[in-house]
Amino acid sequence: MRPLLPTPAYGQAPERKEALMAGPPAAQIRIGISGWRYAPWRGAFYPPGLPQAQELAFAARQFPAIELNGSFYALQRPSSYQRWAEQTPQGFVFAVKAPRYITHILRLRDIRPALANFFASGVLALGPKLGPLLWQLPPGLAFDAGLLDEFLAQLPRDGEAALRLAGEREARMHGKEWLGPVAPLRLQHALEVRDPSFCQPAAAALLQRHGVALVAADTGGRWPELGDATADFVYIRLHGAPKLYASNYGQAALATWAERLRAWAGGGTPPGMARLAATPPPARPRNVFCFFDNTMKPFAAENALALTRMLGLDGELQLPR
Asked: What is the largest distance, in Å, between two alpha-carbon atoms of the chain?
């Protein structure tokens, strides 16, 4: 079992960016799950009789990151974010899935009030446990360079900018908001695309210019599966294949993804993945987030633990209990 690597808070202040990304020891691979509250997991991943209120604390002892997806369906309460932060150990991070109201209903247009409401809803109360923010676009939302450029330009890149934006919240948020204070916090964003029109170099170039990660998603061929590293971190979502959200990953598939994660973390280009850019990005170590979303059965947790062991990262999961 490898020694425990340093685990600095992910939401570091901007001035610490160079320290975290300076060399190979700083490039971290975090493997986790998408959500944690699933009935089929009880008695399988979760021990029999474990109270539901303790499931997050249990899962956070197995994984260094979890993708929080309830925020995709509805704005969460500040008290919920604060409770989740309290139930997880130091060094743990949440990736937070941004509201579908912005991506699927408004379809990235006239989003300023909705953005303000989201950042006022308490997400910043996670503090240093706030990891990347995930923006998932719907199928059928075609690539529009002007629209995407305008959207990405509105995303705050640090805690102060996010608090200023939260101050523009709508009146209906009054009394239900969280407005700080927040320690210096760097925000990073990832975009998951689900329309083939994004499969062009211009899309990758636009994301790279804004420093937004293009999500590498395994979807069984249903949606684009792209390996471009367009930011200083990589975000991977393994949805299950061939059956989305349900299929198990066998040893061969996990070995393929292990090789890809090693390549990204080491600054290389992963084998066997389509890329939009004609030339590979600069070779530099990148933090990697990989979440299993095949959650309809207990496979996600099993696969995440198996991939963790395959990469020799299980020694890094000895978090405080």
From this structure: 53
Determine, yes or no, domain membership for 7.
no
Quick check: 315 and 243 in contact, CB under 8 A?
A: no
Q: 5 has which bridge partners? A: none
* pLDDT of the chain, 321 residues: tens digit per residue: 222 233 333 343 333 233 233 334 458 999 999 999 999 999 999 999 999 999 999 999 999 999 999 999 999 999 999 999 999 999 999 999 999 999 999 999 999 999 999 999 999 999 999 999 999 999 999 999 999 999 999 999 999 999 999 999 999 999 999 999 999 999 999 999 999 999 999 999 999 999 999 999 999 888 989 999 999 999 999 999 888 888 999 999 999 999 999 999 999 989 889 999 988 888 899 999 999 999 988 899 999 999 999 999 985 543 332
What residue numbers bound the domain in which 117 lies?
14-317
What's the pTM value of the predicted model, to 2 decimals? 0.90
Sign of CA dihedral 273, 277, 282, 285: negative
Within-domain flag for 6: no
User: Residue 252 has what pLDDT?
Assistant: 96
Question: Residue 197: which CATH number?
Answer: 3.20.20.410
Q: Produce one character per residue of 185-212: b if its CB has 16 or more CB atoms within 10 Å, e if not.
A: bbbbbbbbbbeeebeeeebbebbbebeb
Rounded distance between C-alpha atoms, residue 187 and residue 271, angstroms: 29
Total of domains in the chain: 1
Going by C-beta distance under 8 Å and a sequence separation of 6 or more, which residues neighbour residue 54?
A: none
Q: How many alpha carbons lie under 13 Å from residue 225 in its C-beta half-sphere?
A: 16
Instruction: Write the CB contacts of 219 (distance below 8 Å, at least 6 apart in sequence).
Output: 225, 239, 241, 244
Decide if 2 is inside a domain.
no
The two three-digit tokens of residue 105, written as one number:
């209903």
Residue 8 counted as domain residue = no
- Three-state SS for 120-185 is HCCHHHHHHHEEEEEEECCCCCCCCHHHHHHHHHHCCCEHHHHHHHHCCCCHHHCCCCCCCCCCCC
